[in-house]
Amino acid sequence: MLAQGLVIALVGAAVPWMDRAAAVLRDGGYAVLRCDDPAAYITQLIDSSAVLVLAGADTDACTWIARAKIEQATRRIPTLALLSDAQQGAEALGAGADECLLVNALETRLLAVVGDLARQPDAARRAELDCQCAQPLSPQGQEGVERFNAGEYYRQHDLFEALWMAEPGPVRDLYRAILQVGVAYYHVMRGNDRGALKMLRRSVQWFADLPDVCQGVDVRRLRDDAAQVRAALESGDPGALDRAHLPPVHLVDAAR
Predict the structure, then answer these.
(1) What's the CATH code of the domain at 141?
(2) What is the DSSP annotation of 196-221?
(3) Domain ranges, residue 63
(4) Which secondary structure element, helix H or strand E, spans residue 31, and what is its range?
């Protein structure tokens, strides 16, 4: 079923409805991620590729929902507020919740609401992405890779941004992923670690649906390299990252 393995984040301090919701979701084939640490919450959402945030009024839903909606790396994740009283709905929606559900309807309606709201895999989009990824990278994209690998991160941004804006199909995620990693490296070179981390965290969402190779780009290696740079920055160790030799974009045979 579509739900199999998709991650639903249950956020806030543990309360009785959480166990009930977790049981219903697991029975429906979803994986459940419990998020109860405000300091780690956004990172958990990013790294788990959560398809929905589930928060309840009893766990200060508005604070948790608003945080996810403010962050550019997570604001596209749909949010569902569980309410013990229908009158709490206006506040939850004002904080950014996409929909509300009364707790007493958990067992009867939760799976249906989550199925409608969560970001589910789209077979047609997947097929279109596979078809587009099998095509060669355009000359403009090849130039963008060359500029990226030459450390000309500002120029690569302009090239890939133009490709992304002109492309209506799902392969636009490839262009956006590359340009955001490049912008992050631009910040790394200038010692702006905060800006670099912001861009690396934001780029994760664009890698989520891409295959390991797309239009000749070694997506898996680019994603893994970006994750290693991010980990080095997050470690706080000045010697953990060689800023003068940041990872390039690797090209491979798209037919592999």
Answers:
(1) 1.10.3450.10
(2) HHHHHHHHHHHHTT--SEETTEEHHH
(3) 7-117
(4) strand 31-35
